Every structure is written in structure tokens, then in C-alpha cells.
């Protein structure tokens, strides 16, 4: 079994946490080559080579790959796929965009959001917002899968894999081009990898009030998350959404403030180790998954909590 | 330009599904079904583009059992001009790869200029069909769209990505998959529901396309996730802090 793991690259940086978690999953299947594709990614390649358990790092450094657009990335990966039994990546927005396209090109199915690997062809994945877990066996010659990072502990550092540059036929297509990034300023831990997450919902009431959530997050050294309702209402940016169709997190501590606990939200956080909920409605469904529930007004409880921490 | 909108009939998002105790799947008998919420958003966008004069016709397409006609009637009532059902055997599992092949066949036949699909079907949570379709057609793709602007044979699309937003341009024809914040879908009015009954809905057996749509994945078993055990209610913030410190040891 040989696995091609696609590193998650953000600009020129390696998303080390997501990549290391997918590596931990990939390593269960066989020898792993990591593909680092982008423009100006030599530092990222070095970092990938430092992850333990990597056979080789393949570097595709080319301007057409600079923004990791789906068309040239899928072209590149599909071209390499024939040498591997598995093509795998973390289930980031970036690779959820690319890997199904690779599978389509190879005429194989995609295994999305894998949370368990039973053997080389048998995988577990959540369906219906995580309310059911399906075990599926793939009959395809090449298995293409995205890995839900919250389900795997990261592979450690301490490796020194050889790095090989690979040729990229620059099929610079006119079909798609990058225009701009409008990224949120990241001044606190990243949501998907944070050990503590504080999330606010519609109950927070306004963008201004969301400062309360951030104060609590600052006290706890936490990342900030949000429900869909809070994002839709403009209280928080889109990349903070936790849930079935947002980010899936499993921190040591998740604090849900003014969030009712719809199944779509629970899908993104119910595997957290410890859940705290603050909600003024004692019947809110969030309390059914909370280890510690505080029934009360968040506008009193959160400032008091900030003070006592 | 014709816009093709694939719509899937799924268990309504408000339903708490039940897993059959024998591991054979999710109970679908007597469960409320609806159009996949992302597909409503895709359809709404297509209708708005037509209303703005950017499209000539909106075609709704579903792949599924006969009951999917109901979903297509909803699409027609919202404002699609006509509908196509590619009918499959009841209970057959049509995977995204097969769905993408069938959509591709219709997109070619119709010479569609744009396929607007949902980013994810909320039953299987695959998030794959649009990307696979783009690969099969060899068209560019713009997934997870929160804003779409058509101009001069191209689309400028704002995408929801992990770090925020990304704007890309794609030449048409293209596949665009839509995210939650693109628009708020309209409700079908009663007169439009009546009118929809007269709009054309073609039914074509899947076999007619001569494509390999056999499943590649065998479902071995479907189980419920381990249940989280309920916790306790605390009486005050002070008690919460004490529990976090002493009992859970997370502070
Ligand atoms: C296709 C689809 C995908 C979706 N994907 C997601 C997703 O990924 N993530 C997600 O989160 N949702 C998602 N949703 C939405 C989901 O169904 C819920 O609508 C949403 O999670 C509700 O957000 P909320 O809990 O913040 O708001 P509400 O349900 O309105 O809850 C607000 C809560 O705040 C409490 N509250 C109000 N004021 C106070 C106060 N002063 N003090 C304390 N408590 C207070 C209320 O008691 C209430 O429980 C999706 C929905 C669909 C249809
Ligand atoms: N059986 C189907 N019929 C019509 N459209 C579908 C079907 N399955 C998936 N789609 C489309 O593909 C999108 C993504 O679905 P999926 O890849 O299954 O998560 C959906 O939002 C629909 O637009």
C-alpha cells in the first residue's frame, strides 16, 4: 500500500496541524508520500519532511499552483495518482474543493470526511449530520478520501524525509483565475486546532455584544466559534461557523453561549471532550450534550465568568 | 443561457433521523422529505439570474425514485421553467459519482451554460457532486459560493473558505456550488403552486443514458454514534468555575 497525502497549504504555509492529523490516518494504510503543491513552498516542504513517518516529500512549485485552484491542482494530483493505492487529504475547505474533482477525473468515488479506517478499503464516515455512522467498503482501484481532522491525533514531528522536486506541466488554463482573498484576521488560536473553543449564537444579539465572547475566549486562550444563526446575522465572520456545514471541532473544552443546540450545530462540536453551555432556556437541546449547563442570562453570566477566571 | 439546477429529495433538516437497530440503514419510511436546503438556495439564485435577464431558462433536474417528482414540482412552483427526473429504482443508492455522470449527460444535451448545485446534500454529507461534475465535463468550478456575479461570459464568485473569503473568476460554462449565505430562498406562492402543475416535467429512466452508475461503495453497516451522557446543571457561575477547576481539571 502506498499513499499520496496532499498537504494543506495556506498561501505558502503548511497547515501543519491539519496535515499531521491526516498523516496519522494515512500512515495506517501504508508508506506515505506527501505532496506539497503551490508557489514558493520550499519552507512548507521542509516542515512536511520533519513530520514523523513520511517516506518522501514531493514538491510541485509552480506559479499555476500558487492559489491552489481546483483545476491545476486536480490535474497534477490525478497525474500522480496512478502510482498509489490511496490519495488522501485533510477535510479542509481547500481539499474538499480539490479531491472530489480528482476522484471525478479518475472515475472513482470519494470517501468524504473519514473518521475511522478499518482496513485498506473499509472506512467509517458520518452521515446525516453525524447522527449515523456508516461503514463503507470501496471497490475502486484508487481510494480517494478526505480525513476529518478532529477524529485523529496529529502525527508527531521528528522525521527527516527526503524532498524531491517534481515537474509540473504548466497547463495554465484560462478557465479559472484567482481575484483576491478576504481573510479574517487571525489574532487568536485557529478554530480547527484549538484546545479550547468559545462559541456564540443568536442569543448574543449583536456584533457589538460578540465582544463578550471574545473576552471570554481571551481569558481561556480559546478560539472563537459561532452558530450559523450568529454568522448569518453578521455577528461573526463565516469562517467561525461550527457545524454540519461549517467546521468540525473537538477541543478539550467547548463553551456554547446563547446557542440552542440544533442538530446541525451539534454535528460540529459534540465530540468535544468537555462541553459547557450557557443558555437562559433550561429546555435548550444544548443541555442534553453539555457536561456542565448554566441556566441564565449570558449578559450576566459571561462577565462574571470573565471576572472569576 | 440555460441554467441547470440539480435538486435532491432528502429527509427534512428538522427531522431527527432514526438508525435501524439491525444496522441496515436509516429509517426513511413515513419521514418528512424536502428539497435539500442548499439546492433551494441554488435554485433561488438561478431564478434571480433569469429575472435579471442573465439566463434564458432554468431547468431543475433530480435523480431519484418517482417520489422525487414532488421535489421537482416544488422547484417549478419556486420558478423553474421545466423539470427533468432521471428515475432510478426505489431504494437504489445513487452515489455522487453516478449523479455527476447523469447531470453531465443532461448538461451536454441541453448545452447548459451554468450548473448551479448545492455544496452538500444533508443526507449523505458528501460535498462532492459539483466537483465531480466539473471534472467529468472538464469545466471550471467555483464551490461554496456566497456571492455570484455574471459578466461577459464569466462568473466572479466569492467563496467561503477556511480562513474567510476567496474571490475567483471562472469562464462559462462552469459548475458553481452554493453555500448558505448566498441568498434566502423564496417560498412558493399558492398561485405558483397551481401553475407549476402545468409546467413540463419529463421523466427518463436512468438506464436510457447507458452510463455505469453502479455503486462503488458497499455499505457494510450503519450505526448510531456513541451517545453523550448527559451532564449536570450548575447553580451559579462560581459553581461552574469550581467544577471546571476541581472536577474537570481544565482550568
Ligand atoms: C442546511 C443547513 C445547514 C446548517 N448548518 C449549520 C451549521 O453548520 N452550524 C450551525 O450552527 N447551524 C447550522 N444550521 C442552522 C441550525 O439549524 C440552527 O438554525 C442554528 O444552529 C441556530 O443557531 P443558534 O443556536 O445561535 O440560534 P437559536 O436557535 O435562535 O438559539 C439562540 C439561543 O440563545 C438563547 N438565548 C437568547 N438570549 C439569551 C441570553 N440573554 N442569555 C442566554 N441565552 C440566551 C436562547 O434561549 C436560544 O436557545 C444549518 C441549517 C441548515 C438548514
Ligand atoms: N440525486 C440527486 N439529484 C439531483 N441532484 C443531486 C443529487 N445528489 C446530489 N445532487 C446535487 O449535488 C449537490 C451536492 O450533493 P453531495 O455531493 O451528495 O453532497 C446537491 O446539493 C445537489 O445539488
UniProtKB/TrEMBL annotation, chain A:
<dbReference type="GO" id="GO:0009055">
    <property type="term" value="F:electron transfer activity"/>
</dbReference>
<comment type="function">
    <text>The electron transfer flavoprotein serves as a specific electron acceptor for other dehydrogenases. It transfers the electrons to the main respiratory chain via ETF-ubiquinone oxidoreductase (ETF dehydrogenase).</text>
</comment>
<dbReference type="InterPro" id="IPR033947">
    <property type="entry name" value="ETF_alpha_N"/>
</dbReference>
<feature type="binding site">
    <location>
        <position position="202"/>
    </location>
    <ligand>
        <name>FAD</name>
    </ligand>
</feature>
<dbReference type="InterPro" id="IPR029035">
    <property type="entry name" value="DHS-like_NAD/FAD-binding_dom"/>
</dbReference>
<comment type="similarity">
    <text>Belongs to the ETF alpha-subunit/FixB family.</text>
</comment>
<feature type="domain" description="Electron transfer flavoprotein alpha/beta-subunit N-terminal">
    <location>
        <begin position="3"/>
        <end position="182"/>
    </location>
</feature>
<keyword id="KW-0274">FAD</keyword>
<feature type="binding site">
    <location>
        <begin position="241"/>
        <end position="245"/>
    </location>
    <ligand>
        <name>FAD</name>
    </ligand>
</feature>
<keyword id="KW-0249">Electron transport</keyword>
<dbReference type="InterPro" id="IPR001308">
    <property type="entry name" value="ETF_a/FixB"/>
</dbReference>
<dbReference type="GO" id="GO:0033539">
    <property type="term" value="P:fatty acid beta-oxidation using acyl-CoA dehydrogenase"/>
</dbReference>
<feature type="binding site">
    <location>
        <begin position="258"/>
        <end position="265"/>
    </location>
    <ligand>
        <name>FAD</name>
    </ligand>
</feature>
<feature type="binding site">
    <location>
        <begin position="227"/>
        <end position="228"/>
    </location>
    <ligand>
        <name>FAD</name>
    </ligand>
</feature>
<feature type="binding site">
    <location>
        <position position="279"/>
    </location>
    <ligand>
        <name>FAD</name>
    </ligand>
</feature>
<dbReference type="InterPro" id="IPR014729">
    <property type="entry name" value="Rossmann-like_a/b/a_fold"/>
</dbReference>
<dbReference type="InterPro" id="IPR018206">
    <property type="entry name" value="ETF_asu_C_CS"/>
</dbReference>
<keyword id="KW-0813">Transport</keyword>
<dbReference type="InterPro" id="IPR014730">
    <property type="entry name" value="ETF_a/b_N"/>
</dbReference>
<protein>
    <recommendedName>
        <fullName>Electron transfer flavoprotein subunit alpha</fullName>
    </recommendedName>
</protein>
<dbReference type="InterPro" id="IPR014731">
    <property type="entry name" value="ETF_asu_C"/>
</dbReference>
<dbReference type="Pfam" id="PF00766">
    <property type="entry name" value="ETF_alpha"/>
</dbReference>
From TrEMBL, chain B:
<keyword id="KW-0813">Transport</keyword>
<dbReference type="GO" id="GO:0046395">
    <property type="term" value="P:carboxylic acid catabolic process"/>
</dbReference>
<comment type="function">
    <text>The electron transfer flavoprotein serves as a specific electron acceptor for other dehydrogenases. It transfers the electrons to the main respiratory chain via ETF-ubiquinone oxidoreductase (ETF dehydrogenase).</text>
</comment>
<dbReference type="Pfam" id="PF01012">
    <property type="entry name" value="ETF"/>
</dbReference>
<keyword id="KW-0249">Electron transport</keyword>
<comment type="similarity">
    <text>Belongs to the ETF beta-subunit/FixA family.</text>
</comment>
<dbReference type="InterPro" id="IPR000049">
    <property type="entry name" value="ET-Flavoprotein_bsu_CS"/>
</dbReference>
<dbReference type="GO" id="GO:0009055">
    <property type="term" value="F:electron transfer activity"/>
</dbReference>
<dbReference type="InterPro" id="IPR033948">
    <property type="entry name" value="ETF_beta_N"/>
</dbReference>
<dbReference type="InterPro" id="IPR012255">
    <property type="entry name" value="ETF_b"/>
</dbReference>
<comment type="subunit">
    <text>Heterodimer of an alpha and a beta subunit.</text>
</comment>
<protein>
    <recommendedName>
        <fullName>Electron transfer flavoprotein subunit beta</fullName>
    </recommendedName>
</protein>
<dbReference type="InterPro" id="IPR014729">
    <property type="entry name" value="Rossmann-like_a/b/a_fold"/>
</dbReference>
<dbReference type="InterPro" id="IPR014730">
    <property type="entry name" value="ETF_a/b_N"/>
</dbReference>
<feature type="domain" description="Electron transfer flavoprotein alpha/beta-subunit N-terminal">
    <location>
        <begin position="23"/>
        <end position="213"/>
    </location>
</feature>
Amino acid at each position: 500500500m502506498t499513499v499520496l497525502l496532499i498537504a494543506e497549504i495556506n498561501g505558502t504555509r503548511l497547515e501543519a496541524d491539519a496535515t499531521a492529523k491526516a498523516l496519522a490516518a494515512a500512515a495506517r494504510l501504508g508508506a506515505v508520500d506527501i505532496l506539497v503543491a503551490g508557489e514558493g513552498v520550499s519552507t512548507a516542504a521542509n516542515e512536511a519532511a520533519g513530520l514523523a513517518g513520511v517516506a518522501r516529500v514531493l514538491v510541485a512549485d509552480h506559479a499555476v499552483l500558487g492559489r491552489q485552484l481546483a483545476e491545476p491542482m486536480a490535474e497534477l494530483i490525478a497525474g500522480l495518482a496512478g502510482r498509489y493505492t490511496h490519495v488522501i487529504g485533510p477535510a479542509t475547505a481547500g481539499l474538499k474543493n480539490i479531491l472530489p474533482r480528482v476522484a471525478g477525473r479518475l472515475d472513482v468515488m470519494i470517501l468524504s470526511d473519514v473518521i475511522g479506517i478499518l482496513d485498506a478499503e473499509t472506512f467509517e464516515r458520518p452521515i446525516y449530520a453525524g447522527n449515523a455512522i456508516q461503514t463503507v467498503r470501496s471497490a475502486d482501484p484508487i481510494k480517494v478520501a478526505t480525513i476529518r481532522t478532529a477524529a485523529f491525533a496529529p502525527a508527531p514531528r521528528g522525521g527527516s524525509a527526503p524532498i524531491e522536486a517534481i515537474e509540473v506541466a504548466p497547463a495554465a488554463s484560462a478557465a479559472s483565475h484567482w481575484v483576491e482573498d478576504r481573510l479574517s484576521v487571525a489574532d487568536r488560536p485557529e478554530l480547527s486546532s484549538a484546545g479550547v473553543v468559545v462559541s456564540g449564537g443568536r442569543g448574543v444579539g449583536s456584533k457589538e455584544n460578540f465582544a463578550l465572547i471574545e473576552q471570554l475566549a481571551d481569558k481561556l486562550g480559546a478560539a472563537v466559534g459561532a452558530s450559523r444563526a450568529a454568522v448569518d446575522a453578521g455577528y461573526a465572520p463565516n469562517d467561525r461557523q461550527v457545524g454540519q456545514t461549517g467546521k468540525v471541532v473537538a477541543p478539550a473544552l467547548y463553551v456554547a453561549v446563547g446557542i440552542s443546540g440544533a442538530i446541525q450545530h451539534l454535528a460540529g462540536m459534540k465530540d468535544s471532550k468537555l462541553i459547557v453551555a450557557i443558555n437562559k432556556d433550561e429546555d435548550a437541546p444544548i443541555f442534553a450534550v453539555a457536561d456542565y449547563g448554566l441556566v441564565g442570562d449570558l449578559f450576566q453570566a459571561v462577565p462574571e465568568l470573565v471576572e472569576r477566571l | 443561457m440555460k441554467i441547470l439546477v440539480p435538486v435532491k429529495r432528502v429527509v427534512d433538516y428538522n427531522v431527527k433521523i432514526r438508525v435501524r437497530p439491525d444496522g441496515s440503514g436509516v429509517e426513511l419510511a413515513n419521514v418528512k422529505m424536502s428539497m435539500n436546503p442548499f439546492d433551494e438556495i441554488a435554485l433561488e439564485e438561478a431564478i434571480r439570474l433569469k429575472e435579471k435577464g442573465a439566463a434564458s431558462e432554468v431547468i431543475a433536474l433530480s435523480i431519484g425514485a418517482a417520489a422525487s417528482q414532488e421535489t421537482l414540482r416544488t422547484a417549478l412552483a419556486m420558478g423553474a421553467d421545466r423539470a427533468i427526473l432521471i428515475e432510478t429504482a426505489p431504494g437504489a443508492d445513487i452515489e455522487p459519482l453516478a449523479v455527476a455522470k447523469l447531470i453531465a449527460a443532461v448538461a451536454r444535451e441541453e448545452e447548459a451554460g451554468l450548473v448551479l448545485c448545492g455544496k452538500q446534500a444533508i443526507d449523505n454529507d458528501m460535498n462532492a457532486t459539483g466537483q465531480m461534475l466539473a471534472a467529468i465535463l472538464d469545466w471550471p468550478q467555483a464551490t461554496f459560493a456566497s456571492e455570484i456575479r455574471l459578466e461577459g461570459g464569466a462568473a466572479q464568485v466569492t467563496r467561503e473558505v477556511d480562513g474567510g473569503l476567496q474571490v475567483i473568476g471562472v469562464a462559462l460554462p462552469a459548475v458553481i456550488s452554493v453555500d448558505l449565505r448566498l441568498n434566502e430562498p423564496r417560498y412558493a406562492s399558492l398561485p405558483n403552486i397551481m401553475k407549476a402543475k402545468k409546467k413540463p416535467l419529463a421523466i427518463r429512466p436512468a438506464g436510457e443514458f447507458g452510463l455505469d452508475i453502479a455503486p462503488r461503495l458497499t455499505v457494510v453497516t450503519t450505526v448510531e454514534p456513541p451517545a453523550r451522557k448527559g451532564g449536570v446543571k450548575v447553580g451559579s457561575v462560581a459553581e461552574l468555575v469550581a467544577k471546571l477547576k476541581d472536577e474537570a481539571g481544565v482550568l
